[in-house]
From TrEMBL:
Identification of the protein by name: GAF domain-containing protein
One Pfam entry name: GAF
Annotated GO CC locations: cytosol
Organism encoding this protein: Shewanella hanedai (Alteromonas hanedai)
InterPro entries: FRMsr_CS, GAF, GAF-like_dom_sf, Phosphatase_reg/MetRdx
Organismal lineage: Bacteria, Pseudomonadati, Pseudomonadota, Gammaproteobacteria, Alteromonadales
Family according to the record: Belongs to the free Met sulfoxide reductase family.
Database matches in PROSITE patterns: UPF0067
One of the record's GO molecular function terms: L-methionine-(R)-S-oxide reductase activity
Annotated ranges, domain GAF: 44-145
Top-rank taxon, per record: Bacteria
Length: 152
């Protein structure tokens, strides 16, 4: 996707989230919107931070890992660093957790309520190097819209 496509997707996400205050419902529709809008994906979903581990939340895709320890795999590392991780080849990522053997690249974006980490948005692709800098910026902006809609 290009910058303009991400801006359009962001407007759709904002419209989708208007008036929604239930976190699970918002996460479910948000992950469905991304899954339907971006190509070459095989998993889109959230892991929620609970008791210092990531617990599977609403998602689109195949059966997934239910729990991920903080600091482990791409999701746990993104959560512990509180920063986006874009990995072109997950098989080269030290400690990668293979929930779906078809996944080859991944991007994980932290989700905050004010300044507190509450979840990560995890997006996987069967294509190596699927996610570009434009994807990262566009997806980070989508997550900011999600945070604003749900947490002000």
């Amino acid at each position: 996707m290009d910058v303009q496509s991400y801006e359009s997707l962001n407007r759709q996400a904002q419209a989708l989230l208007v008036g929604e205050d239930d976190l699970v419902a918002a996460m479910a529709n948000f992950s469905a919107l991304i899954n339907d809008s971006l190509d070459k994906l095989n998993w889109v979903g959230f892991y929620l931070l609970k008791d210092e581990q990531l617990i599977l939340g609403p998602f689109q895709g195949k059966v997934a890992c239910s729990r991920i320890p903080m600091g482990k795999g791409v999701c746990g590392t993104s959560a512990s660093r509180k920063q986006t991780l874009r990995v072109g080849d997950v098989h080269q990522f030290d400690g990668h957790i293979a929930c779906d053997s078809a996944s080859n690249s991944e991007i994980v974006i932290p989700v905050f309520n004010q300044k507190s980490l509450i979840a990560v948005l995890d997006i996987d692709s069967p294509i190596l190097n699927r996610f570009t800098e434009i994807d990262q910026i566009g997806l980070e902006n989508l997550v900011k819209s999600f945070e604003s809609a749900l947490f002000g």
